[in-house]
Design brief:
The chain is α+β, with helices and mostly antiparallel strands. It is built from 22 helices and 44 strands. The strands form twelve sheets. Strands 14, 34, 38, 39, 40, 41, 42, 43 and 44 form a nine-stranded mixed beta sheet that branches. Strands 8-7-11-9-10 form a five-stranded mixed beta sheet, with helices on both faces. A hairpin with a 4-residue loop joins strand 20 and strand 21 (618-634). Helix 2 (17-33) packs antiparallel against helix 5, helix 10 crosses helix 14 (417-431) and helix 12 crosses helix 14 (417-431).
């Protein structure tokens, strides 16, 4: 872009800060509204930009905003009394060391973050500011299409940085090029740099120093060609037949030597630390000029760039406070990757393995792996982190290779550290799988065989197909038991696991309010509040309410959710999660005699009249009212209408007002009481009420006159209403197919005045926030509690139904997990993040996890191993902040030093063991402790790490 000339000082002085602010705001609004692919944006240092914002807003009142757009910044409040900014100075964004390369242009630092280090300005805004203030240097960047649909727009702050390698000349150069440029443009740039003709070159995707694909489609973009950051591109010169140059090139690129060093090896091999044969035994390709074939196992153990590293080391050296204390640079939201990598490289078993000769175990042809590239990249990064010195390492090559195989981790957005960890463990396993040809094996059903026999068979089948350092160190086995709810078929399998994902709740307990009703007329309804596990099951609520209301041995509780004065659902499955009951729900518990085969549930639904006035006439209809009641009704023999009346009388007797006791004279209902819905085939006379004397004792011990001829209507099998207030001795037919016998009680105004209906009207919510009830305290949660929740029996979710082999149907079976075989390194993931269609949520609960003596002995179902299962914490990842904008760190214990360190990207600092525990803990790494002996009290007398 052409530089914009500076305006004179007199011209600049014509605009006040307020005028500058308004002008830039208007330009920004117009530019943001018309952004399109191909537009140019400019980087400007955040330091200068913030000063200008404060300057132009110094006369404005403070206005807090989220800075979601450039125009918002121009309207934000600032300080007062600021001088006019000096010229724009972007020097703090420039990487002077890399900018010396003429092919690269002006290079910025690799770790810059938008909003923290720089702001992106539309070209029109930059032109205006530059005309006022001048300065620089100018850092233009293009708008490109991005996203899966290629419809999103993004500014490409970091174009691709590619290493061009010329064969057989041995020349090399580094260039920057947009990933939206074409292969043809890459050809052109290469020819210009190396002074070549287009006709004499071929360009190869040389990822991992292997010819992956010939880049011959000149119209394809580099993005479509899957070219990654910091990747090698091979520029092959077709008319050069100089074999020496080819050999020199192969040595240099495959062993890390400069061209001069490679030439020295060729000319004087006797004086060199490597012979030509030695070099080629370490390369991945074959040279006909060398006269010998390369080993198929691609042994790279003697490559030149690693000669100074401890290849033959069998232990992990951590003494001297130098090795193992190397940080990782943040490339831009890569803290999630850095924290996971540090935990893995500080796992002693992995450190020993990857610092040794692991190349011979790489499975180059595993279709499930990454052709060994992930293992090589991880091994190379681990060696750098364990090398002497404390200079932070930029994991850019590793990230580029990671993005090649896992597109979800490409770019520079924040990701989940645990998801990356899961991918790495699985990918490293497949790259290092010692099984080259996996046999087809099918595990037999248990069929009543001992668990030990079935578990060993499953494990043998698993290791016959999967055998790697990852399996050796991280994989365990759990027992999975499924039970069909219909035919009770039991299926037992034994499955491997790489880590445990434990559920987490924001509080350990939850207060729930339930209204308890009796069906025998012995007590008024009572409201009880109980405390249950927040992530508990319905059986926990039943147990708590039963204890609270002193449930008798011959009684049982039926708990229902009440909504709109109707019974919404009867909760009967003991494994139903309590999370399905919301705080604003209303629950009713009914104490009824224990169920027998010859009884059904009678559901009494209350109704009252609602009057409606229209322009033509007044009308009324019956609507649900109050809280429905439940009782049991026998099915043996005939049931008369009067028997149903007595059951209802008994249910309602505690609600009869004291002043109405003994009052047996009730007049005919008023005109308003006579109005009825046309669906009731009864006359006003039939709906009249008359109380007769009975000798039932009420809860106060006094006599009460119960009522007969109550306005009750029962719904029969044909969904028609039967009037129960007439022909009392007439038998009724109860439906045997329906779960409930539904009876309506139509309340007149007179009847409503005789009973205390507050008990039925005011049903409290399960939990009401406010001063009346205090919210449950967010108490620490034990890691053992999380493990028990993970192992608790629970029904499968509807989306994960089980195909019962006996029923031949999809069933919502109950599932129970048990730990069976534990690994040497146990990785535990605390499920802090929850997702739904409408929201994402992070659980901030503090988990009290053991640092020492994490005892899993009682959680292992297998009894073959009598040794105690003790573990020690040696590493963990932490997540701070919210989901999208949080930050990851790692706490690592160097075992030889017996000291904890905090790894925060490139910054490493020692910490006390007390600082390891926090509410930010996310993924925990435990290592098995080998117990030598134990006394009768279980006190361990000696221990060592396995």
């Amino acid at each position: 872009m052409a530089e914009v000339s500076m305006c004179s000082s007199s011209e600049r002085a014509e605009l006040s800060p307020e005028e500058e602010r308004v002008l830039v705001r208007d330009i920004a609004i117009a530019a943001e509204a018309n952004s399109k692919e191909g537009d140019t944006f400019y980087l400007i240092t955040q330091r200068w930009w913030q000063y200008w914002i404060d300057y132009v807003n110094q006369d404005q009142s403070t206005n807090i905003n989220d800075g979601s757009s450039l125009s918002d910044h121009c309207d934000s409040g600032g300080s007062s009394g600021l001088y006019r900014p000096a010229s724009i100075d972007n020097s703090d964004l420039i990487d002077d060391a890399k900018s010396e390369d003429p092919n690269m242009g002006i290079e910025i630092h690799d770790t810059l973050l938008e909003g923290r280090d720089f702001v992106l300005l539309p070209q029109e805004v930059w032109n205006q500011l530059y005309s006022w203030y001048g300065g620089g240097p100018t850092l233009p960047r293009k708008v490109i299409s991005s996203g899966l649909s290629q419809t999103e727009l993004a500014v490409e702050v970091y174009p691709l940085r590619l290493q061009l390698l010329v064969m057989p000349k041995g020349d090399n150069a580094t260039i920057r090029i947009s990933k939206k440029e074409t292969v043809g443009e890459l050809h052109q740039r290469a020819c210009e740099i190396f002074d070549l003709n287009l006709e004499q070159v071929r360009v190869w995707d040389y990822y991992g120093h292997q010819k992956h694909a010939l880049m011959s489609d000149m119209d394809k973009t580099l993005d479509d060609a899957n070219i990654q950051m910091d990747q090698d591109i091979l520029v092959e010169v077709l008319n050069d037949v100089n074999g020496t140059a080819s050999i020199r090139f192969m040595i240099s690129v495959d062993n890390g030597f400069s061209t001069k060093e490679a030439t020295s090896i060729l000319m004087e091999p006797s004086k060199s630390s490597l012979s030509i044969a030695g070099c080629f035994s370490a390369s991945k390709g074959a040279s006909r000029n060398c006269g010998s074939e390369l080993s198929q196992n691609h042994n790279l153990a003697t490559t030149g760039r690693e000669l100074d590293n401890t290849y033959v080391s069998v232990g992990v050296t951590t003494r001297g406070a130098s090795c193992g204390l190397t940080g990782l640079l943040n490339l831009g939201n890569t803290c999630f990757m850095n924290s996971a990598i540090q935990c893995l490289v500080h796992t002693p078993e992995f450190a020993r393995y990857f610092r040794g000769d692991y190349h011979r175990e790489i499975n180059w042809h595993n279709p499930l792996g990454m052709a060994g590239d992930l293992a090589l990249a991880f091994g190379e990064l681990l060696r750098k982190l364990w090398a002497p010195g404390r200079t932070p390492v930029a994991p850019r090559p590793f990230k580029a290779k990671l993005a090649r195989f896992a597109a979800q981790f490409s770019g520079y957005n924040q990701h989940d550290s645990q998801e990356l960890l899961a991918f790495l463990l699985d990918g490293l396993h497949e790259d290092l799988n010692r099984v080259k040809h996996k046999p087809y094996l099918k595990s037999r059903d248990a069929d009543g065989r001992p668990d030990e026999e079935v578990a060993d068979e499953y494990w043998a089948n698993h290791t016959a197909r999967n055998d790697s350092i990852i399996v050796d160190v991280c994989q365990g086995q759990y027992k999975s038991t499924l039970v069909c709810p219909v035919c009770h078929k039991v299926s037992v399998t034994f499955d491997p696991f790489m880590y445990l994902s434990l559920p987490l709740q924001s509080t350990t307990m939850r207060s729930m309010t339930v209204t308890v009703f009796t069906c025998d007329g012995t007590a008024l309804p009572t409201v009880t509040t109980v405390t249950v596990p927040k992530q508990g099951r319905f059986r926990d609520l039943i147990q708590a309410v039963s204890s609270s209301c002193s449930l008798k041995q011959n009684e049982e509780l039926k708990i229902a959710e009440i909504r709109n004065h109707l019974l919404q659902r009867l909760i009967e499955d003991p494994l139903t999660s309590l999370s399905s009951i919301k705080d604003d729900d209303r629950l009713a518990a009914y104490k009824i005699p224990k169920s027998v085969k010859s009884s059904k549930l009678l559901q009494l639904i209350h109704r009252c009249q609602e009057k409606e006035t229209s322009n033509t006439q007044a009308a009324s209809h019956w609507k649900p009212y109050g809280t429905p009641l439940l009782s049991s009704i026998p099915l043996d023999g005939e049931t008369t209408r009067s028997e149903v009346q007595k059951i209802v009388q008994k249910m309602l007797s505690p609600l009869l007002k004291v002043e109405c006791l003994g009052d047996t004279d009730f007049s005919q209902p008023s005109n308003s009481d006579e109005a009825s819905d046309q669906s009731h085939d009864i006359s006003p006379d039939e709906a009249s009420t008359k109380f007769k004397s009975d000798s039932i004792r009420d809860i106060s011990g006094s006599k009460m006159e119960t009522c007969s001829g109550l306005p009750l209507q029962m719904v029969d099998e044909n969904n028609a209403c039967i009037d129960l207030s007439v022909e009392e001795e007439k038998a009724i037919t109860l439906s045997k197919s329906s779960k409930f016998i539904v009876v309506y009680f139509d309340w007149s105004e007179k009847l409503l005045g005789m009973f205390d209906m507050n008990y039925l009207e005011n049903l409290p919510e399960v939990f009401r926030y406010g001063p009346v009830m205090k919210k449950a305290r967010n108490e620490p949660l034990s890691l053992y509690t999380c493990l028990e929740s993970f192992l608790r029996e629970e029904p499968l979710v509807p989306d994960d139904m089980w195909n019962c082999p006996q029923c031949k149907e999809q069933r919502q079976a109950s599932k129970k997990l048990d730990l069976w075989r534990l690994p040497n390194v146990l990785v535990i993931h605390l499920k802090r993040f929850s997702y739904s269609r409408s929201m994402k949520h992070k659980i901030e609960t503090f988990v009290n996890f053991p640092v020492h003596d994490f005892d899993l002995t009682n959680y292992v179902a297998s009894k073959n191993n009598s040794q105690r299962q003790l573990y020690e914490l040696y590493a963990l990842t932490n997540h701070y902040g919210s989901m999208g904008s949080g930050h990851y760190t790692a706490h690592i214990k160097l075992l030889d030093e017996n000291r904890w360190y905090n790894f925060d990207d490139s910054h490493i600092s020692p910490i006390n063991e007390e600082e390891v525990k926090s509410a930010a803990a996310y993924v925990l790494f435990y290592r098995r402790v080998k117990t030598n002996d134990a006394n009768g009290n279980g006190a361990v007398r000696g221990r060592s790490y396995q």
